[in-house]
Amino acid sequence: MLSIGTIVLSVEDIGRAGDFWRAALGYVNRSEPSEDWVILDPADKAKWHEPGTSIALSVTGYPQHYPPRIHLDLYAQDQAGEIRRLIALGAQEVDWHGYPPDADYVVLEDTEGNRFCVVAVSDHVTV
């Protein structure tokens, strides 16, 4: 059975993007970054093949596409607090009018324009 090991995000400024995602998720560099590539792992992940999804940042030189075809969903117990923290780290709110009336998520983008949702964790299950 397959599992997701690493999600690759395209970036323009690898240092700025690395700073954002390390602070946002508490991740660490797997090894020293190159000029165009770095893999970030959960801090408690001892070996690359262990469970826990990693994020790789890749300088591609391609412009961002909107809307993006893939994005991250980040779960938060304190959604409002996490949104404030992420904005303080450099994230921006996306001016998006596609929210349903009962939306449990807010769309943000990182310092490089990669979109992600901050989803409120609740006791109910959404299908």
TrEMBL record:
Domain Glyoxalase-like: 7-119
Gene3D superfamilies per UniProt: 2,3-Dihydroxybiphenyl 1,2-Dioxygenase, domain 1
InterPro entries: Glyas_Bleomycin-R_OHBP_Dase (IPR029068), Glyoxalase_6 (IPR041581)
Pfam families per the UniProt record, alphabetical: Glyoxalase_6 (PF18029)
Domain of life: Bacteria
Name of the molecule in the record: VOC family protein
